[in-house]
Hints:
Layout: H1 12-15, H2 20-28, E1 43-52, H3 56-65, E2 72-75, E3 99-102, E4 107-111, E5 122-128, H4 131-139, H5 145-148, E6 155-161, E7 171-180, H6 184-191, E8 203-204, E9 230-236, H7 240-248, E10 253-256, E11 262-267
Antiparallel strand pairs: 1-5, 1-10, 1-11, 2-5, 3-4, 3-10, 6-7, 7-9, 8-9
Amino acid sequence: xxxxxxxxxxxxxxxxxxxxxxxxxxxxxxxxxxxxxxxxxxxxxxxxxxxxxxxxxxxxxxxxxxxxxxxxxxxxxxxxxxxxxxxxxxxxxxxxxxxxxxxxxxxxxxxxxxxxxxxxxxxxxxxxxxxxxxxxxxxxxxxxxxxxxxxxxxxxxxxxxxxxxxxxxxxxxxxxxxxxxxxxxxxxxxxxxxxxxxxxxxxxxxxxxxxxxxxxxxxxxxxxxxxxxxxxxxxxxxxxxxxxxxxxxxxxxxxxxxxxxxxxxxxxxxxxxxx
Length: 275
């Protein structure tokens, strides 16, 4: 199948010092297709799900029933590739680094631009992302290993069941960051201030307790080093929504590629409309 995916021309390090408008332009120009962790401090980052609008009400209820894993930050009107409260200049057809295309329920294609696929009945949903709170953790001296190692954060399918809504259901997904044992309490304290970005961790320690067989083999993203004195810490992850999409199996759906988020104009601490 024909795909518009082409190798990235810019590296993460090239984008790291840039302002959000410059980073977004690089994505719009298809010059970057990598992870967005560590980019644009102070900005809310979001997962993206685009569905035929007839699925919209069920999907919105799915997010409401599973706010730790799918905190909904906004949705578009059908056929409109914009969510104005997240940024008036954002065009959802172009402004993510990489998209996954599902037909039906199976990921069949990667694209850097989805303008050719856009339909008048598409409705887009933005879901808060844990990349949002990473800047606050780093300011507190808590390292983010995936940023240090320049890889995509590891993500895992768990045996935690989500609450179903209509055709949407499935297992919860988590992201993992190694944290020094003496810093775990501080991590909880900081992350509780970001309920719109998955909030506090859902699990610390033994991965098997939440159904993860091998922490060195993530389902998405890349394995990272866990050093002596560190424990794996797991947060809710918006890729949970992709599990729900595969279960629902609409004739077409489009999501962000795991780790390649929408960077919004919204403040990381006070996104519009969040309660």
